Amino acid sequence: MKRAKIVVILILVAIAAVVVLQNTESVETRILWYSVVMPRAVLLMVTGLVGFAVGVIACFATSKRGA
């Protein structure tokens, strides 16, 4: 089981590396009245982290209501 976890982690790291290497082009992102220029890989990572955080917050908010 421990070996399977290591293999899965290595595969995910390899996929993340491919995504970063393929998305190095800078993009302009507008958030309300701010404009930010960043590599596309960073934008993908930030978007994923924000989505994860919203999911965790929603999970905690709904679990406390039911208790």
Detail the topology: elements first, then pairings.
Blueprint: H1 2-22, E1 26-31, E2 34-39, H2 40-66
Antiparallel strand pairs: 1-2
Please describe what this structure looks like.
It is a single chain. The two termini are 34 Å apart. Strand 1 (26-31) and strand 2 (34-39) form a beta hairpin. The protein is flat, with a radius of gyration of 17 Å. The chain has one domain. It has 67 residues and is of the alpha+beta class. The chain has helices at residues 2-22, 40-66; strands at 26-31, 34-39. Strands 1-2 form a two-stranded antiparallel ribbon. It contains 2 helices and 2 strands, in the order αββα. The mean pLDDT is 87.
Task: List the defining traits of the structure above.
alpha+beta, two-stranded antiparallel sheet, 2 strands, single chain, 2 helices, 67 residues
Summarize the structure.
The chain is an alpha+beta fold. The chain is 72% helix and 18% strand.
The tally of structural domains comes to 1
Number of strands: 2
Largest sheet report = 2 strands, antiparallel
Strand percentage lies at: 15-25%
Q: Which strands sit side by side, in order, in the main sheet?
A: 1-2
Q: List the total number of helices.
A: 2
Coarse morphology = flat
Q: Give the low-confidence spans.
A: none
Taking the alpha carbons of the first and last residues, their distance comes to 34 Å
Q: Which structural class should the secondary elements be placed in?
A: alpha+beta
- Taking all Cα atoms into account, the compactness measure Rg is 17 Å
Q: What level of helicity do the residues show?
A: over 70%
Order of helices and strands: HEEH
